[in-house]
């Protein structure tokens, strides 16, 4: 008779650390790391859930700063200006369309706004920034985050094949990923599967998009709270890691001696991002899966497909 393997808490923790090490090797891609994290969490749960959630945010920020060390500041500036119009139009259109779809489906107003702002700007980060401003309840935040998580995970797997199917250049794919995928980690993860130029553009344009958290959150604060005569809400935090990304790129650009170390740091940052995706996947619990109602999910996927299609067509037409 075959022996039955009993996964004790100790074995689960050892397996968790083994997968962390595996994700740092060249064997695991960005999408593969996310898949491993989700499967591990759904089967075993996360033995270090609180610590993982805390570490994930920090690791993502340091990874983004590290990626800046492998980029040219002049290129960043050029792509920033090129992507500014796309970003402004995309965010405005997404916000209007998302709220309209939510109203049509009669999605709970708070959840509808969180899903919309998460789709329009940068997924979980935008949801986390806006949630305290509109005093969202825990279950409302969970539903919005779970919906966005599903779509992020899907995008990481399907965007690169779609890009190749339509023969998108690395530049085109970089723009598309940055404008149509929610979270920064998934944007960069998808771009990493397409090429180094795609990563450079996707990271720059995505961070430009993330900067819109501040004005958008302030506007929401006024419309949602002041117009309802409620108390002054929490102010959104400025994403300072974006400044770190720009500073790292500036140092490497203007100090030639830092070029080689910058490439080394950038390489480490890319592997750290793969690890980040594994950790993000490992925080996806069965309870989160059960929390997603049909209306929020329909709203999220409808809005996402619409914006991904529109941006793909616009980028393909404009070249």
Topology readout:
Blueprint: H1 9-23, H2 30-44, H3 49-68, H4 73-105, H5 109-130, H6 138-165, H7 170-180, H8 184-192, H9 196-210, H10 213-225, H11 241-254, H12 259-282, H13 286-291, H14 294-318
Helix pairs in contact: 1-2, 2-12, 3-11, 3-12, 4-5, 4-9, 4-14, 5-6, 5-10, 5-14, 6-8, 6-14, 7-8, 7-9, 7-14, 8-9, 8-12
Would you write up a description of this structure?
The protein is mainly α. It has helices spanning 9-23, 30-44, 49-68, 73-105, 109-130, 138-165, 170-180, 184-192, 196-210, 213-225, 241-254, 259-282, 286-291, 294-318. The longest helix is centred in the first third of the chain and has 33 residues, at 73-105. Helix 4 (73-105) runs antiparallel to helix 5, helix 4 crosses helix 14 and helix 8 packs antiparallel against helix 9. It has one domain. It starts with 8 loop residues before the first helix and ends with a helix. The protein is globular. 78% of the residues lie in helices and 0% in strands.
What is the number of helical segments per DSSP (H or I, 4+ residues)? Answer: 14
What proportion of the residues form beta strands (DSSP E)? under 5%
Low-confidence stretches: none
Number of domains: 1
Radius of gyration (Å): 20 Å
- Helical amount: over 70%
Secondary-structure content class:
mainly alpha
**How many E-type strands?**
0
Shape: globular
Characterize the main sheet. Answer: none
Give the overall average pLDDT: 84
Order of helices and strands: HHHHHHHHHHHHHH
Instruction: State the end-to-end distance.
Output: 63 Å
């Amino acid at each position: 008779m075959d022996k039955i393997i009993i996964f004790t808490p100790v074995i689960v923790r050892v397996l968790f650390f083994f997968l962390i090490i595996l994700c740092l090797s060249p064997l695991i891609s960005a999408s593969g790391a996310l898949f491993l994290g989700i499967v591990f969490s759904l089967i075993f749960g996360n033995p270090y859930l609180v610590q993982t959630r805390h570490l994930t945010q920090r690791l993502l920020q340091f990874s983004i700063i590290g990626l800046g060390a492998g980029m040219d500041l002049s290129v960043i500036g050029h792509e920033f200006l090129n992507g500014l119009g796309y970003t402004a139009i995309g965010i405005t259109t997404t916000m209007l369309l998302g709220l309209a779809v939510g109203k049509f489906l009669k999605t709970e107003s708070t959840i509808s706004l969180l899903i919309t702002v998460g789709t329009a700007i940068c997924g979980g980060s935008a949801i986390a920034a806006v949630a305290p401003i509109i005093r969202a309840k825990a279950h409302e935040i969970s539903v919005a985050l779970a919906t966005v998580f599903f779509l992020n995970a899907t995008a990481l797997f399907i965007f690169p094949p779609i890009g190749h199917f339509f023969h998108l250049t690395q530049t085109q794919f970089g723009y598309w990923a940055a404008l149509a995928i929610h979270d920064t980690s998934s944007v960069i993860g998808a771009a990493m599967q397409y090429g180094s130029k795609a990563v450079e553009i996707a990271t720059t344009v995505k961070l430009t998009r993330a900067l819109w958290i501040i004005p958008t959150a302030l506007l929401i604060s006024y419309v949602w709270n002041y117009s309802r005569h409620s108390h002054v809400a929490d102010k959104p935090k400025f994403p300072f890691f974006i400044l770190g990304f720009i500073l790292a790129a500036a140092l490497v650009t203007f100090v030639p001696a830092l070029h080689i170390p910058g490439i080394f740091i950038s390489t480490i940052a890319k592997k750290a991002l793969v690890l980040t995706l594994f950790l993000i996947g490992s925080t996806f619990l069965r309870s989160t899966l059960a929390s997603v109602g049909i209306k929020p999910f329909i709203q999220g996927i409808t809005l996402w497909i619409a914006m991904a299609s529109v941006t793909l067509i616009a980028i393909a037409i404009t070249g």
